[in-house]
Amino acid sequence: MADSTATAITPPTRSNENRSTTPGSEGFKDFISSGWAERTDVLPPAREQAPFAAARRERLSAQYPGQRLVIPAGRLKQRSNDTDYAFRAHSAFAHLTGWGSDSEPGAVLVLEPSASGHDATVYFRERAGRDSDEFYANPDIGEFWIGPRPSIAQVASDLAIAVRGIADLAHVFATVDSETIVLREADPAVTLEIDEGRLRFAADKVLGTDAANSPFSLEVNGEHEVDDDLARRVSELRLVKDAWEIDQMRLAVAATARGFDDVVRDLGNSSDHARGERLVEGVFNTRARSDGNTVGYDTIAASGPHACILHWTRNDGPLTPGDVILLDAGVELDSYYTADITRTLPVNGTYSATQRLVYETVREAADAALAVAVPGAIFRDVHAAAMTVIARRTAEWGMLPVTAEEALLPENGHHRRYMVHGTSHHLGLDVHDCAKARRDMYMDGVLEPGMVFTIEPGLYFQSDDLTVPAEFRGIGVRIEDDILVTETGAENLSAGIPRSADEVEAWIAGLKA
Description:
The chain is α+β, with helices and mostly antiparallel strands. Helices cover 35% and strands 14% of the residues.
């Protein structure tokens, strides 16, 4: 059995020996490790979300009495050679610790069973002292390379949780048993360590001896059902947002609204460029980086026929006067909570008669969906309400070979040719949040106060679709809003971003440069 512990705890530094010029002399090492001002740790107060994260851990703990839970943050992911993508911790780790964009790669949350439930500990790679070569010679974590790292005491104070150095994680790995469960997808190296520990534990039971030194082959829980169950439960834990999460969603929507304003102001400039879609993307992304962590997902800036491509992210086309541009974008905050909003804008500031007809039909579908989004309703009913409008209008326009009523039958669905996606998805830490929740809690789930999801109907008439009149071809429209279920109904968090065709035209006239 391979010894993976070292790699799981501290991955090896990537070699650059063939091009490194870092001195290795004793004189250099002595000099660079001395002459530094004394560093005083300033302990921050617990962050605002710390008590909310603690309450979430308690809810999870109650579902797993006597079982150890291992929830890694994840690792840096390679982009090319020795460059990485910006680190983003796994959403379950962020949800349960309160750590967001300042999370440390390789950190692991462990919930250790105790008499009162579980004791929570975060393990992370603490900063190296300046008497170590790590701080200047390790480009992955060295302070000279990526900036100062927090101390164990600072993280413990910040998160209001017990924190230990990453080396102590070895004890967790050494005591893995059949009651240890891991969030498999978060960190493959940690998952491998847990799998091997469970295998050793099972083999010890079978062999009655120390299996670590015994050659054997034993398949244990090949389907990993208990781990899959943990992934499901941490996903379902996010279906209903707490008060702090709802505040974050409001802030994310507000930042996104400012980004949409920026795009509208710059439409004239974007329209003058051969790859105007890319300028739109850049303008919005600037707002996302200035007011948040980044974008919550790749911005869709789809002009003209590109608006009919649901996930158009190449964004390399022009903005042609007379076309519309579909902008689907969201700001992700430093807490990782993201908005997800779409508006479809006339490039020249005015919709054509057909564009306006399609746009207002999509808004009618969105309003119908919002009307049924109340506590006690079924999530799928939101989609059904929007589809009733889409079927009726496309039938009226002569696009369907059957009546609207016939199209809406489960065995048909002809109207879905023009909108193949769903109307809603949950929203929060992930743009498609709670994705591993069971169907009976998601699509067939009952709406509860605190749920946040999108309503995003659309109509997409491809340029070569002969089932639609010529004047419709090449028009794609989507309107997407972020919805909070309240005690008495639902609140459209993004209602402040112009929605009707008249409002959009006035918005552009007022802001366009």
